[in-house]
Records
---
Amino acid sequence: MASTQTKEQIQSQDPAEWVDLYGDMLLRYALSRMRDRDLAEDLVQETFLVAWKNRKEFAGRSRFSTWLVAILRNKVADHFRREGRRKSSSLDESEGEPESEPLFSKWGKWKRSPKSWSASPAELVENREFWVVVAGCLGDMPAHLAYVLRLREFKSAKTKDICSLLEISSSNVSVRLHRARLLLRRCLEEKWFS
Amino acid sequence: MKCSHATKLLSEAEERQLTGRERLRLRFHVFVCTACRRFKKQLGLLRLLLTEASPKILAAVYASDATLSASRRQEIKALLRRAAEES
Ligand SMILES: [Zn+2]
């Protein structure tokens, strides 16, 4: 398997071969973090170019695929950092909802009260269809919100680590998480628990 | 306390320790408000599910069979070959 190639093999290889060996794996990684396919392919492309430029730094201590994923992971974080900065300069994140359809009335009351969910967590975890719906809901919300939620809930990242990764304040992180949870909740209620 | 504020605090409680006063007001609101009580329960469920969710399930759901488009594949190879020739 290609993933156990040594440092010497990697460095003498035609880099175009990397694309066949690792391209799909990297694309899947990128797509597990974003929905925009063109963007995911762009980041994979950048990853290969960076890998080529820095190939001497691959020390062979980890697998080459792991090394490539680490580069891609940084590219993904960079992307959301830029994206988030653009979003927060265009609207004040500590205020209100940027959505067309607010969840609360101007008096702060639920517009549509949450319903009572009947659910068995143990069964849901095993239910693949449920996760398809979750993935769809995450894909439908603004990408920078879904990304923060994924870091926090799936990876159990600490808030302070998210702050430094995305270079935003902890109150910014809370606001994004809160919005993401509200949107996920509403979406699941519509698409699963009704 | 408004529902919008109560939900915000319920969510924040997962990130930071609420102050005594916040906790007290929140507890009262949740006691009297069915909607927020449900929200609180749902947050807990989501938290549990998402933490439990094996990343593998999610990876499978997201893009198990995605492949690089042929045109992109060619493009990246061409870029890499050019970079290799230049060095
Ligand atoms: Zn309420």
---
Amino acid sequence: MIWSIGWKNVWRNKARSLVVIVAVILGIFGGVMATGIMQGWIVQRLHDGIHNETSHIQIHHPDFINNEEIQYTIREYDTVACILDTTPEIIAWSPRVQLFAMMQSDWAATGTMLYGVDPVQEKLVSEIHLNIVEGQYFDDDYRMPSMVISSKTAENLKLLNYQVTEEKLDSLLTMEFPKDLIKKVESIGKKRFRTEKDFRKALKNALGQKQFKEYGNTLVDLFSFYRIRSKVTVTLQNKDGRIVYATFRVRGIYKTHNSLFDGMSVFVRKDDLKAYTNLADNEVHEIAVLCTDKETGTRVAKRLSGLIPGNSVLSWRELTPELAMYTDFSNIMGLIYVGIILFALAFGIINTMLMSVLERVKELGMLMAVGMNKKRVFQMIMLESVFLTLTGALIGLVVSGITIEILSHTGINFGVWAEGFEAIGYAAIVYPVVTTGNYISMLLLVIITGIIASVWPARKALKLNPVEALRTD
Amino acid sequence: MKVIELKNVEKIYNDSEFKVHAIRGIDLDFEEGEFAAIVGPSGSGKTTLLNMLGGLDKPSAGDIMIGGTHINELKGSKLIDFRLHNIGFVFQSYNLIPVLTAKENVEFIMQMQRRPAAKRLERTRELLEKVGLGDRLNSRPNKLSGGQQQRVAVARALASKPRFILADEPTANLDSVSTENLLDIMEQLNREEKITFIFSTHDARVVKKAKRVITIEDGKVIRDEWKEEDVR
Ligand SMILES: Nc1ncnc2c1ncn2[C@@H]1O[C@H](COP(=O)(O)OP(=O)(O)OP(=O)(O)O)[C@@H](O)[C@H]1O
Ligand SMILES: [Mg+2]
């Protein structure tokens, strides 16, 4: 019955309890959202990190890690290949030639890592082919060797241009833009801009500050285009230490959420590169391995390093330690958020419970007089506090659970800050992730908060002297 | 058989600088089955005396024995448990838990005594019927009149099967009909079930019903008289 008294007491002063309940709902909602977004980002970053960048395991010549020189190719390639083929946890693996090279377009130059890959094997290990934004990923054979670069590299090589074309102006008409805007855009003329900066400047001059602020980003996107099929000349050092030149045609542009990775990674066919590097078919610098899942990946890595002692075997945990750390701490970080929010809420709960105790002095005095012991008094007040908090928490969890469920499909768009996020490898659209474990630990935290918040008010009640409490006023 | 024995009980309140000598040496015995009223002018010490009888307050000197226990020596949870199992209380007001129904209020005290659920329910029903509230089991206190609330309090006090029931001015907030009604019920319980009642009052009509009237003044018993039919 003490449980039912505790519950009923919550509703004695409905307005006051509702204030606390609403505060708890909002707090939980905020906590769940923050947790969900943070974990969504970590999950996305981890997925990208593994599937675009590191894979689960990478094998190198031990010296290659510190010194990426062409002669440090993987030792005993054929044995390694055989072991990889017979390891059941491995889904796929892809050998890569990896060299530092200078890229030069007709307008600019930049240095990047050049990967020579076997597209068929590479597609099984990496998801770069799923991130093509323009052109294609080694799908067709052309006479001139193909190259896949990132949009970031395209930008660096000035292969991302801007031009106001008839065609795109026409498409403007179908969209809901002010009439005068189209005229102003038209006034820029047919000039081709090789950098975003120049085009923005021209656009700003034509539109004026106000309209530029409103439509600028949309228009920059609309009038941008990649100069696909451009020639890029690659300068590299071959196996014999000689500088050689190779010419490729850009056939595809990819874009991941990590502009740092994008800016450093250019892909060509391994076979196309062979003629320039003088490397044999079994001379590669890197093997990327994809396992059934990431934890299996770390296990298999450990096993492999025993099996192929001549090479270095690193798991994703060692390749990107910061990601491994985020993954390990994401659970705790969510709880810390909620913990901080609940800590603040605790003061409101304490206040409400104190008021609830102080306006019931006579009743509490009576109960203690007729024989309610301290343990029961404490229990009654603690339960009231827990119920009060729990009501808000359960509603908050349900509401945020539903919201998270919806957002995990639609995603949350932080478009305005996209550039900043992508500079550090995070997507502008995040799909929040909250696990059942997260919800359960939050619930436990709420109950603990309810209990702790009741201690002071309950002590106040226990200090009452029944005779004084009952003395009629 | 004696339920309560008071020996030379004194009570001095040490309020800041003022010292109030509220009870000045009282010797009293109460037998099982008594129906005793404590009367006296305001400030004479009635409430102080009843509080000490109920183990809510400690005497400054002297000894109080209840059923052979020196209650002065009980402390903390022992004292609370002693009250729970030995003494029934009816206060002037605030007797009931407002969020519980009449039935639950009565049942609650038996639950604190850890009596089996089936017995509790049966007894609750029986007691509320006895005080004439058999049809109001599920009413909350705010839906009951003052008199009805006091009757629930009597049922609640009885529920714990105490040695005696203490009631400090139980009728002070009641109109004359309700007062009469409450007293009739108490008297009937006393007569038929030998329940011991000790109550204080200002009301002459209530005094009339008592079988023993103890008059105190200035913290001293000045008269202690029995009605004829009460053979001692
Ligand atoms: N807690 C206290 N502190 C100091 N003095 C007190 C305290 N309680 C009671 N007194 C004093 O003790 C004396 C007896 O008071 P008590 O309440 O027992 O009288 P009473 O007979 O019940 O009066 P009433 O008929 O008005 O209820 C009074 O002088 C009162 O002022
Ligand atoms: Mg009094």
